[in-house]
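Objective 1.3, modelling of assemblies. Example input:
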Amino acid sequence: MEKAIIDKYELVVGLEIHAQLATKSKAFCDDANSFGEEPNTNISVITLAHPGTLPKSNKVAVEYSIKMGLACGCEINRYNIYDRKNYFYPDLPKGFQITQEKHPICIGGKIDVKTKSGIKSSIRLNRIHMEEDAGKSIHKEGEKDTLIDLNRAGVPLIEIVTEPDLRHSEEAYSCLMEVRRLVRYLGVCDGNMEEGSMRCDANISIRLKGAKDYGVKVEIKNMNSMRNVQKAIDYEKIRQIEMIENNEEIISETRTFDAQTGKTYGMRSKEALNDYRYFPEPDLPPLIISDEWLNNIKADMPQLPKELFQKFTSKYNLPEYDANVLVDSQDIALYFDQICDHSKNYKAASNLVMTSIKSYLNDKGIEMQDFPLAPAKIAEIIALVDSNKVSNTAASGKLFKAMTASPEKSALAVAQELNLIQESGNDFILPLIQEVIEKNPDKVKAYQKGKKGLIGMFMGEVMKLSKGKVDPKKTNKLIQEALEKA
Amino acid sequence: MEIVYSSIKEIKTAIEQGKTSCEKLVNHYLDQIDSQKDLNVFLEVYADEALSRAKTIDEKIKNGTAGKLAGVVIGIKDVICYKDHGLQAASHILDGFVSQFSATAVEKILEEDAIIIGRQNCDEFAMGSSNENSAFGPVKNSVDKTRVPGGSSGASAVAVAADMCLISLGSDTGGSVRQPAAFCGVVGMKPTYSRISRYGLIAYASSFDTIGIIANNVEDSAFILEIVSGADDHDATVSHSEVPSYSKLLTPKSKYKIAYLKETIDSEGVNKEIRESVKGKIQQLEELGHQVDAVDFPFLEYALPTYYILTTAEASTNLSRFDGVRYGYRSKASTDMLSMYKRSRSEGFGEEVKRRIMLGTFVLSASYYDAYFTKAQKVRRIIKEQTHKLFEEYDFIVLPTTPSTAFKIGRYDESNLVEYYLADLCTVQASVAGIPAISIPCGKDKEGLPIGLQIMGDSFKEAELLAFSKYISDLI
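Predicted structure (tokens):
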């Protein structure tokens, strides 16, 4: 389609993001909440909805939900009511899902987003509410029967609902990235979309630029990666523009995204017309969040990415680039922060983390928490460089590598073992300079006549004689002095 | 028919004196059950198991290690879970279902060495006031076999009245233990909502349901209540307030302030003999120096519609789990998923249950939610508040338990359903308000059919309510 036509329209997107909470047990019973187990093993009478069973709410799930709310700047609702959402499906054992319809636990808030192309936006949240997951229906090809695995039934979820504030598909991608980073920082969800622990539905509409009213929205489900969310929005935008340009009417419906074809397909309209008959769950009393409880949760909040970013750029004076790279992962950011408890050379610490440490982790395929060196050891390396005892190259190369193999040894001890300690004493350097000057009288004359570039040659010779152990800065200065005098 | 032992106290004394044993008692009740099979009371009798347990408990009695309910034989309504025993709410939808756990109340009585003799018939899913809505046929009143025993815990009341067990655990959502107790001439009590854990009680209407106790007398009711009540981790709605020793608190006060509701006693719907009987009791109380006042309670006429809107709404979703997917009845005629749901539920549920599911689904539907459900919730709050207000001034409210005595089996059908629902007229107020209420025998009508006097107390005032009920019972 012509760009000029596409440019007439504005995309309007709102997201509904589900995140499975990484609690030990399910939302309303003691059954284990763990992914990848044998089907139908974490299913007590409560998960199976046997007659006579009752739900009881999992406090940790409530705390995780509140943490996400606090991280997004939401207002925390102190008087929570659970609701039942009624519909029949074989993977929904009770015939209803316990959710929060009228009184969600978190109200308002926002997610700050910055896309790769530099679009900065603040996506307002409508709400975050708590609910329980359904089981899984497994349709095997060629078989008539549907298999049901109820391990997932009753796993706690939060649903993060944004306002229709997104205008670009890449904002959706960035928004999901940010949500994933937040849930991971908070430790409330592993954020893995491929495994389904984070899921996203998108409500998409278009309107003419400058129009006040929203267009008819279409809900897209079944996108199992952040890239697919972006792709589905891109596809849907063009589909809707084409329809409007062709004077066709867009109907409010639920569509599913097919990652194979990259297209969206309409689902049966019957499903969209469900009346869920929400009403307050009579088996759970109102959940009241006391000041004390809320304060304890607040006290337990980790430092968030934006707080660490702020700290790294202002207190440690790091460039924004460095700070962004560091806070991308909580473990790395906190490790860096701990180095800074032992070293004031923050930029050197950042460099070591972003280069040596990150490539070490990549090479070994391990996580930050499995990195063998304590932050204090990294500070020792930095101190050796700062005091000119070890060259920067040797420090980030040979020394770093050797230390990871013997993490209990001090940086100094390892540097000595490897013979990496630079000599900066005049007694050591001056005789070497003298030797080189004596061997090269012509070059000395040439230098004195103005061929200052020759200093590099002298430097190289001295280095060679010292087997690379002289402090280059100091040596350079001494060579200059010696050449002037010679 | 001679009742050998009619109270826990008598049984305990007889056991102590060596006149009887758990084994003898169980054999006696089994004989009683066997000889009155035509009443259709028990859906399943646990004869062998009860006898073997009786022998174990007799040993414990000898060794002095027996619990408080040693010698007490109890029947349970078929809506209360008992581990490894059948459970089906008198419905085909649960055909073949075996409970995998015991209700908290059942755990508690078993811990005290009670013997459970079997599960009792009832109205399907506790929906009904005559015990005619059972998939296993109607239960007959032992006083007059042509009449209903009331419902929904009809069989539980008959079992006690006809000496098939000493105590029954039933359930009361809108009068389901009090009304059959009145029809059968026994004591039926519903405590404050949340006093007894609902874990293991099949839900009809979660915010109304309570386990209730049917016994021969107030003392036994008090004794069982103190054992089955109390906090429970499995029920988020259960009360954590301390459970008094009700059976030790049965001494009445010297002066009571009692209210009676003109709207009930003077209602045209209330049969004349019942009105006279209750009025006679009121007069007797006045003569004994208690203050008795007639009070207006203009909200009463709204209690019944409020009750039916809210209970059917809750029931419609509570019963969604019976879908033929995981357990119970699945129609063999199912061809696909949708037909499995439709056929299994259409064939598995009885007419009254389906009617209430439909009504509840209707009142919760988006277009009618506010007009019915929201409004009924508001009215419920008003009825609660106004009822509590009465208790600021009065200790108790007395009223008839039922507008009529036990009616003939088959008297009501779809043509006079509203009249059938009116049988709950006097009992729903306590359920809507969540307060404790008890029905005690109050004489008989000309045909010899029992009349029940209902007494309602304020929330968690079971001790006072039971003491006063014993006082009135002793007057009769």
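The radius of gyration of chain B is 21 Å.
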